[in-house]
Amino acid sequence: GTQSDADDDLDGTNDGAQAGGEGTESLSGLFTLTPGQEPQIGDESFPGGAQDDTDPQDDANGNMTIDFGFVPVNSVGSSVFFDMNDDGIQMGANEVGIPNVPVQLFADLDGDGTPETLVGETTTNDDGIYFFDNLPNGTYNVVIPSLPDGTGATSGTSSDDPTDAAVQNGEEQLDGTVASAPFDLTAGSNPTEAGGFPGDDQDDAEETNGNMTIDFGFLPNMSVGSTVFYDVDDNGVQDLTNPLEYGIAGVTVNLYFDANGDGMIDGLELTAIETTTTDADGNYFFDNLAPGDYQVGVLPATDAPVASSTQSDADDDLDGTNDGAQAGGEGTESLSGLFTLTPGQEPQIGDESFPGGAQDDTDPQSDENGN
Fold it and tell me: What CA dihedral angle connects 146, 151, 152 and 158, to 10 degrees?
């Protein structure tokens, strides 16, 4: 910063300099105290100037102009969270923070408006909160190096306004990172957060020296699965009281994705994105899926080449019912209808009571994101 001559008797100006750099002792220049010649009341009008005013003699024998100015530092932080309803806002008991997510801070050190120099790295705490402090005034952005574990995409709703405490700020980049827009940190002028969102209180001791609005929302991975079973009475329902209607092991199951969102599986989409086989109980499971429209196909077992004649709507969330149909006839792939996987809105424990229904029950977020 700017240093005044300590012997110029000017009050309210910085007289210190840090020759050793940030965090080191700030030293004034050498100054001389001369009896009867030191600045008096009219020249010592800034705070601290009246300390030698007990009588005229003391005032003329004291110098109350040796001041030191220090530039306050800034901070930035807030939350990385599961955005279950894809609205860009962390709200509700199920929209919890994501722990142990790496977070990077970049600064614009050359003044070109683009923060390209890595100046800080941290990870989110158990509540998904992150925090960087001791930052000089400048232009910054926050980056998540890759999608956090258990997520498939950023929230569809975002804001490039760094003062918006409600809406998340992350945008996926071409290199696979997720970054906020550049924002300025200026001590004394940073936003005051009053929304009660997670992480907002990290700068409460120096509210206007911190920006706690840079949040990142992510859509959780989706999953789908259940059972391929012998429908002995051909009624389209797995009868758990009938010992003959058990799951069929070793059956090939294909998963198809409507990549262009046109409501059909066609063209290149006719190639399965994943394939698995049923386990010993006839159960299958696909996970780490992005939200969207899917179709499941089953290649029938040789001892049961014909699909049940009764087909349910695959998107009705009814467990234990046959969702497949064989348009090509006996022995061909049995295909479900198209169904939509929507974050936070898939059937949970009470709706998935048949075999295979517990495959997504690892935690509440996984359960309501799996069908």
Answer: -80
Per CATH, the number for 74-220 is: 2.60.40.10
Q: What is the pLDDT of residue 354?
A: 45
Q: Which residues of the chain have pLDDT under 50?
A: 350-354, 357-358, 360-361, 366-367, 371
Q: Quick one: pLDDT at residue 357? A: 44
Residue pair 79/198 in contact (Cβ under 8 Å)? The answer is: yes
Report the topology of domain 222-367.
Immunoglobulin-like (2.60.40)
Tokens of 302: 């040789």
- The alpha helices in 62-190, defined as continuous H runs, are none
pLDDT at res. 123: 98
Q: Among residues 71, 284, 89, 106, which one has the least CA distance to residue 178?
A: 106
Alpha carbon 260 to its chain's center: 26
Ranges of each domain in the chain: 1-70, 74-220, 222-367
